[in-house]
Amino acid sequence: MRLPYITIPDFHIGPLPLHPFGILVATGVVIGSSLALRRAPRFGLERRKLESLISWLLVVGFVLSHMLDELMYRPAEVLADPVQLLLIPKGISSFGGFIGATVGALLWKLKTKEKILPYLEQVAAVFPISWIFGRAGCSVAHDHIGRVTTSFLGVDFPNGRRFDLGLLEMLITIPLAAVILWYARKPRPTGAILGLLSVLYAPIRFPLDAMRATDIRGADARYVGLTPGQWLSVGLFAVGVVLLVRAYKFLPPPAPIVPAPETTSDEADEHVTPESKA
């Protein structure tokens, strides 16, 4: 079995090019945002406030995803030409986006003075679904080139069969999304979804980054033998553990929802007033 190297040409609306990567990422954003907003009323959250939070997450997240991508992976280029930091379409980093979204969330909290974890929980519950589309974009752009391999999971790149790490992460994210959605339906303390997502994603990302190509031009920078993504995976795992411990040890679980008892016809007759009988 051999996985072909597939390229999808850009679409054009007049002179405007639409890249498959951008289309898939935008699709993931729209679907994820819609699902999160649908969940909000079920948990007593205001849709308007969640819309505001999502806007902050996206704007700050995308801006910092590019800036941190340049600083972490191409610091020499930034020193030579700092303008690279402003060229957002040039490239983005997933962990840079995570950090940016965190900054955006903190800014939103400072602005609104709202409790942020209940709202972030709804974003975290559906985030893996958006991530599937995002990594699908990476798989068609082939921008996460892995090591040379003979595995049946290798893709026939022009320079030989290699792992396509965007494709692998997309496939792994599908069961991850199912687990998170299942867990999000269970009674749980606030913060637990975010913690579980962090704890599950970090061990996926760490070994995938270890499979990144080192023999090509523009290979990812490494610091003490690890990529920036690996170092940040360690930090993400630690944050997830803290969130889970805090949720289950220090925060009481939500009170169970007890359905109202059904009223029998005899009991209903006892509550009928003379006026209502008339």
Explain this structure to me?
The chain is mostly helical and 278 residues long. It has one domain. The strands form two sheets. The chain has a three-stranded antiparallel beta sheet. Strands 1-2 form a two-stranded antiparallel ribbon. Strand 4 and strand 5 form a beta hairpin. The longest helix is centred in the first third of the chain and has 27 residues.
Q: What about the largest sheet? A: 3 strands, antiparallel
Write down how many β-strands occur, each being a DSSP E stretch of 2 or more residues.
5
Q: Taking strands numbered 1, 2, ... along the chain, how are they ordered across the largest sheet? A: 3-5-4
Structural class: mainly alpha
Please report which band the strand proportion falls in: under 5%, 5-15%, 15-25%, 25-35%, 35-45% or over 45%.
5-15%
How far is the N terminus from the C terminus?
80 Å
The radius of gyration computed from the alpha-carbon positions, rounded to a whole number of angstroms, is 23 Å
How many DSSP H or I helices?
Answer: 10
Model regions low in confidence, pLDDT < 50 over at least 5 residues: 263-278
What fraction, in percent, of the residue positions are helical?
A: 55-70%
How many domains make up the 3D coordinates? 1
Overall residue-averaged pLDDT value: 87
Order of helices and strands: EEHHHHHEEEHHHHH
Overall geometry comes to globular
